[in-house]
Write a structure and sequence with these properties.
Length: 365
């Protein structure tokens, strides 16, 4: 481990030599220790440990691991983990440790082993593996703060603006004046902010809860529920639905977020007073054009303007997100992140209706 030759060749062809070569070159900090009444005593460390914690192997070898890397106020937690390790249990826990650059968050894995004879499997040593989660944890906290601000402050203020603007419109006697147009514009903007807050909340729910591997859903009731909802909300829209025998897909109730956001986009971004939307559930076609049994596709088609290429690219191809290249709203992002969570794919094409065909491809259960 640390301090050994840096030649990339494995000098020792034995299993132990290959194992040490692996441990030495993994990016996670690894400590090998022996177990005693006083807790884990350092036997060796790899290069990543030296880089992260700032201690050379010769400095820390033979020392108490806890005394060197565990903050004083976290010692009780560390001793509890040590007790689990001594009992033969493998520990997985997020912990805070002192490093060369201050406190950092890690996924700690304590892996015990026994070196005694075959009749004695009592652990007398082990490994501590530290995967740095600091930036991940900080980003999660930042996103949670931003999400709370967006959901709470923005939505509450949008409600106030929309409510007062509606009252103002009702009290205006001249329904044709510029004042009415201005008030109506403010009202629309407030409702768009409300929708943005809702979409942000749905994205949070998608990202916070991974899909159960055994989760499945019949997509037809979900699609029909979305159609019924939008027919009620936008009676001027011509919304069609076509379904077939497709079966269940790998998804859960959050599929509605994706379908609803695509239908909403198709209606809201269509300048026609009577926008046309068609939803179809089909089996995917294979390379030969024949129906494939593995995938189901939910098509959301419209007769509106084509989605701008830069908005498609930033969603589909991972193009760089910049202040001027990020998409005009959260609807497509909500659909993309939801479908991605289910192991599916969102794709863009042209519809024979004259507009877009945004498709959700999901694996059949």
């Amino acid at each position: 481990m640390a301090g050994e030759p840096t030649d990339e060749r494995v000098e020792d062809g034995s299993n132990d030599g290959r194992y040490r070569h692996l441990i030495e070159h993994v990016q996670d900090a690894v400590v090998e220790f022996t177990l005693a009444d006083g807790g884990p005593t350092v036997s060796d460390v790899n290069r990543a440990f030296v880089d992260v914690f700032g201690y050379e192997a010769d400095d820390i070898r033979g020392e108490s691991l806890n005394e060197w890397v565990v903050p004083d106020w976290k010692l009780a937690e560390a001793r509890e983990l040590d007790t689990n390790t001594a009992s033969g249990a493998i520990n997985y826990q997020q912990v805070t440790r002192e490093t060369a650059t201050g406190l950092r968050e890690f996924l700690y894995r304590g892996i015990p082993y026994a070196t005694g004879d075959a009749d004695d499997d009592t652990p007398d040593g082990g490994f501590a593996v530290y995967t740095d989660l600091t930036e991940v944890s900080r980003n999660e906290r930042r996103l949670e703060v931003l999400n709370r601000i967006l959901r709470h402050n923005l939505r509450n203020n949008a409600n106030v603006v929309a409510g007062h603007t509606t009252r103002l419109l009702a009290q205006l006697e001249d329904r044709r004046g510029e004042t009415v147009d201005v008030a109506a514009t403010i009202e629309r903007a407030a409702h768009e902010l409300e929708q943005l807050a809702d979409e942000a909340n749905h994205i949070r729910q998608v990202l916070e809860h991974p899909t159960d591997e055994v989760a499945d859903i019949d997509p037809e009731p979900t699609v029909r529920a979305v159609v019924d909802d939008h027919r009620e909300r936008t009676p001027s829209a011509d919304i069609e639905i076509e379904t077939g025998e497709t079966g269940r897909v790998m998804a859960d109730s959050r599929l509605r977020y994706a379908v609803d956001s695509l239908v909403d986009n198709a209606i809201e971004h269509n300048p026609s007073p009577e926008p046309r939307v068609r939803l179809r559930i089909t089996s995917a076609e294979g390379l030969s054009g024949a129906a494939s049994g593995e995938w189901v596709v939910i098509h959301v088609e419209d007769d509106g303007p084509q989605i701008p290429a830069d908005e498609r690219d930033v969603i589909r191809d991972g193009s760089a997100i910049t202040p001027t290249h990020h998409g005009s709203g959260l609807g497509l992002w909500l659909a993309e992140l939801t479908v991605e969570t289910f192991g599916g794919e969102l794709s863009f094409g042209a519809s024979d209706l004259g507009g877009n065909d945004v498709s959700i491809r999901l694996r059949r259960r």
